[in-house]
Specification:
Layout lengths: L1 H12 L19 H15 L30 H13 L7 E5 L2 E4 L8 E5 L4 E5 L10 E3 L14 E2 L8 E9 L7 E6 L8 H7 L6 E9 L12 E4 L2 E4 L15 E9 L1 E4 L16 E8 L6 E4 L6 E5 L6 E8 L4 E5 L5 E11 L13
Parallel strand pairs: 6-8
Antiparallel strand pairs: 1-2, 2-5, 3-4, 7-8, 7-9, 10-11, 11-19, 12-19, 13-18, 14-17, 14-19, 15-16, 15-18
Helix pairs in contact: 1-2
Length: about 375
C-alpha cells in the first residue's frame, strides 16, 4: 500500500512537468508493478498534455515540418498581424492628390473604391476616413481660415500656428488625430517638408510617425489676389496653376505667381530665394515652370539663368508682345534681355513646379 501511495504522489508531481524524469533501479531491487507504473505513467502523463518547450531540442522544428497555411493570421501576435495588413495595403495604395475647391478650401481626393473615402499611409500605419465634404468638412477638407485641431476637443482641418498670411506658401500634411485614433486631419504650415524642418514637424504633429506630407499650395498671386488660394491641378509630384493673373507689365494674361515685373527695362532678373514668402520658392521644389511675358521686342529676346551663364530661349527681333513657358531649375533663377539699349516691359510668373518630396513616395518623406 505504501508503494501505491508513493506512486500516486509521483504522478501528481508531474502533472505540469517539463523535463521527463524516471526512477532508477539498482542491483538487488525487486521490480514491482508500482515502480514500473511510476516510470511509465510519468512518460504517459507528460506526453498527454504537458509537453513544453524544454522538451524540444532547439532547432528541432524545421520550416519543412510546418505545413503550408498552418499558421493563420489569428495565431500571430496582434502587432505582427497589423504589420502584415499594413504592408499588404501598400501594394494597393495610391497617394491622394490635393484638389482646389475655392479660394479658401482645398480637399484631398478619394483613393479607394468607397465613395468619399481617403486613405493615408503614415510611416507606421494606414488610416482611412470616409466623409462627404458636401455636408461636413472635418477631416478631408482643408480650410485656410480654420485652425488645425487634432489633440483634443473637436477635430478640424486648417492652419497650424499663425493665422492666414497673404502671398505665402503652405505645406499640407495629413496628421493623426489623438481624439479618434482611427482618423486624421489636414494641417497647413509654413514648415516645408525638408530635412531641416524634421524636428519642427515632429514636435508639431506628434512625432515622426504622426504625419504624412500631401503637397504644397500657394495663397496669393502677388498681384490682384494676394489672399486667395490659387487654383491648381496636382498630378503626382507635378502642380500647375490655373488662376488668371492680370495687371503686370506687360499686361498679358498669365497664370501663376508674379515673381518679378517691370514696366520698362533692358533686362529683368529674378534671383532664387528659398522660403515660403512672397517672392520665394519652397525648399522642396527643385524645378519650376516659368511663364515669361515680354512686351514689343525691338532687339533679340534672350532668356537665361539669373547669372547669365546658360541660355534657355532666344528669339530674333519682333514687334509683338510674347509669352513663353519654360521648365528650369528653381535655383537657377531667371533673366531676360532685349538688346543693350531697348527698354521693354517684362513679367515673370511661376506657373507650375515639381515637388521633390512627392516624387515616387507614399509616406512622409523629407527632401
Amino acid at each position: 500500500m505504501k508503494r501505491i501511495y508513493l506512486a500516486l504522489l509521483l504522478l501528481a508531481g508531474v502533472s505540469n512537468a517539463g523535463l521527463i524524469t524516471h526512477t532508477d533501479y539498482t542491483d538487488g531491487d525487486t521490480i514491482t508493478a508500482a515502480k514500473q507504473n511510476t516510470n511509465e505513467n510519468t512518460i504517459y502523463t507528460e506526453f498527454n498534455g504537458n509537453i513544453e518547450s524544454v522538451n524540444i531540442k532547439a532547432g528541432a522544428v524545421a520550416t519543412s515540418d510546418i505545413a503550408d497555411l498552418a499558421v493563420t493570421a489569428g495565431k500571430l501576435d496582434a502587432s505582427i498581424t497589423s504589420t502584415f495588413t499594413y504592408v499588404r495595403s501598400m501594394s494597393q495604395y495610391k497617394k491622394p492628390e490635393l484638389t482646389f475647391v475655392g479660394v479658401s478650401d482645398v480637399e484631398i481626393v478619394g483613393n479607394t473604391a468607397t465613395q468619399y473615402q481617403t486613405c493615408i499611409t503614415f510611416p507606421d500605419e494606414l488610416r482611412c476616413v470616409t466623409e462627404n465634404t458636401g455636408s461636413a468638412t472635418k477631416y478631408r477638407r482643408f480650410t485656410i481660415t480654420a485652425a488645425c485641431t487634432f489633440l483634443s476637443g473637436t477635430e478640424d482641418s486648417g492652419l497650424s500656428g499663425a493665422a492666414e498670411a497673404s502671398n505665402a506658401w503652405y505645406a499640407l500634411y495629413a496628421v493623426k488625430s489623438v481624439v479618434d485614433t482611427s482618423k486624421y486631419v489636414v494641417c497647413g504650415t509654413t514648415n516645408a517638408p525638408t530635412q531641416a524642418n524634421s524636428a519642427n514637424l515632429a514636435a508639431m504633429f506628434g512625432g515622426a510617425n504622426g504625419y504624412s506630407y500631401l503637397g504644397t499650395i500657394r495663397n496669393g498671386d502677388a498681384a490682384g489676389a494676394v489672399s486667395d488660394i490659387l487654383d491648381f491641378a496636382q498630378a503626382g509630384s507635378l502642380t500647375f496653376f490655373k488662376n488668371t493673373n492680370n495687371g503686370g507689365s506687360p499686361s498679358l494674361t498669365g497664370t501663376g505667381i508674379r515673381m518679378a515685373d517691370t514696366g520698362g527695362a533692358t533686362t529683368l532678373t529674378y534671383a532664387y530665394a528659398v522660403g515660403m514668402g512672397a517672392a520665394q520658392t519652397p525648399g522642396n521644389i527643385p524645378q519650376v515652370l516659368w511663364s515669361i511675358a515680354a512686351g514689343s521686342v525691338s532687339g533679340g529676346l534672350v532668356v537665361q539663368d539669373s547669372g547669365g551663364a546658360r541660355t534657355y530661349s532666344q528669339q530674333n527681333a519682333s514687334s509683338a508682345a510674347s509669352l513663353r513657358m519654360l521648365w528650369m531649375g528653381a535655383t537657377e533663377g531667371v533673366k531676360t534681355s532685349n538688346g543693350p539699349v531697348s527698354s521693354i516691359s517684362y513679367d515673370f510668373m511661376l506657373a507650375g513646379f515639381n515637388d521633390a518630396a512627392l516624387s515616387g513616395t507614399i509616406g512622409a518623406p523629407l527632401y
